[in-house]
Amino acid sequence: MDYLNADTDSTRRTYRETLNDFQRRHPMHAERVRAEHLIDFLTTDADGHDTKRAPATLKRQRAVFRTFWQWAKRKGYVKINPAEDLDTLVLGSGDSRPGRWLTRPEALRFAGRLR
């Protein structure tokens, strides 16, 4: 995990779990991953329904993706960084009320406008 400058075992475990969960839901080579796959992971749960994850969890998972894809691009493993614009998506803000979250279609529309 040389892409991770982690101070604790807990941080390393969190990164590993997030990336493993993503790989299980989107089993493809890193070069094929696009922003839409990351948005799908962040906005839906494994069952395909709108996510129930807390905003802090989504923020942490977004940070994992941002760090990993920056490293992969810098090392030449991928040509594009699909996590580049994830910080512009508002995925939750404090409350875990369902109305506060972007749905997958809303997030995809928003991401499409960024290009």
- Global shape: globular
Fraction of residues in β-strands: under 5%
Q: What is the helix tally?
A: 4
CATH C-level class: Mainly Alpha
- The stretches of 5 or more residues where confidence is low (pLDDT under 50) are 93-99
Helix content: 40-55%
Number of strands: 0
CATH architecture: Orthogonal Bundle
Between the first and last Cα atoms, what is the distance in angstroms? 30 Å
Average pLDDT, all residues? 83
The profile of the biggest β sheet is: none
| CATH fold field value | DNA polymerase, domain 1
Look at the helices and sheets and give the structural class.
Answer: mainly alpha
Count of spatially separate domains? 1
SSE order, as H and E? HHHH
> Which radius of gyration do the C-alpha atoms yield?
14 Å
Structural commentary:
By secondary structure, the chain is mostly helical. The protein has one domain: Orthogonal Bundle (DNA polymerase, domain 1), CATH 1.10.150. The chain is 50% helix and 0% strand. The protein contains four helices and no strands. The chain has helices at residues 9-25, 35-43, 55-74, 104-114. The longest helix is centred in the middle third of the chain and has 20 residues, at 55-74. It starts with 8 loop residues before the first helix and ends with a helix. Residues 93-99 have low confidence and may be disordered.
